[in-house]
Amino acid sequence: DLRKQARQLENELDLKLVSFSKLCTSYSGARDGRRDRYSSDTTPLLNGSSQDRMFETMAVEIEQLLGKLTGINDKMAEYTSSAGVPSLNAALMHTLQRHRDILQDYTHEFHKTKANFLAIRERENLLGSVRKDIESYKSGSGVNNRRTELFLKEHEHLRNSDRLIEETISIAMATKENMTSQRGMLKSIQSKMNTLANRFPAVNSLIQRINLRKRRDSLVLGGVVGVCTILLLLYAFH
After folding, report:
1. Are residues 104 and 172 in the same domain?
2. Same domain flag for 17 and 108
């Protein structure tokens, strides 16, 4: 029952995290389109948009699901340590560790996505303030239109550079996550190989005992057959 509940919560978390990641990915694009649509700052850049409200709602829901999954893992840990299940302890501990790893991965992904979203929103607030100052300066002094245009171009270049840097960092983080996942798989394979290597001496010892018993039984049987043969010969000659 606990495993079923854990799997159900993990499936819900997986769907929520996918939607959460899509929301954070589309946030920056929507802000860029809004800035390109309006040539002036008559409409605020951040005006309590639905994306911000969706972010807060989904973050609360994911945190609640993570809390429930943590509670289920704690209950499974209590069950594995309880009396009456010693023969299944190894399998149960393996299952519990797998669910703990899944919970850790989901928690890490949630915090990473949330941090990226907050960083994007903070950057958008900063860029919106800078853009507003530039537009105010441009509208207030017609003599310096050329200089303002240069400022705007420079600002656009900086924004493009910032976007390229973010893409590079995202690729590096994805590569790091893949390498971490591969390292975990290699560690799991190594632990299984060590377990098999530890089991082989016990198997060899058991086979040796079986062979010794077979040899002993063969000697006993041969002795009995020999004694019977001698007795039959003595009886026949007598």
Report:
1. no
2. yes
Express each pLDDT in 11-68 by its tens digit: 988 888 888 888 877 765 555 555 544 444 444 444 446 777 888 888 888 889 889 8
**H/E element holding 66?**
helix 50-81
In a domain, 53, yes or no: yes
The gap from C-alpha 90 to its chain's centroid, in whole angstroms, comes to 23
CB-CB neighbours of 24 under 10 Å: 22
| 36 lies in some domain | no
Evaluate whether 62 touches 16 at the Cβ level (below 8 Å).
Answer: yes
pLDDT digit string (tens) for 193-215? 777 666 666 666 777 888 888 88
CA separation for the pair 126, 24 (Å, rounded): 18
Look-up: residue for tokens 């990226």? 116
Q: Is 226 within a domain?
A: no
Residue with the two structure tokens 């039959």 = 232
Please give the backbone phi and psi of residue 47, each rounded to the nearest 5 degrees, phi first.
Answer: -125, 45
Cα 238 to Cα 234: distance, rounded to the nearest angstrom: 6
Residues 112 and 22 in one domain: yes
Q: Which domain does 148 fall in, by range?
A: 144-188
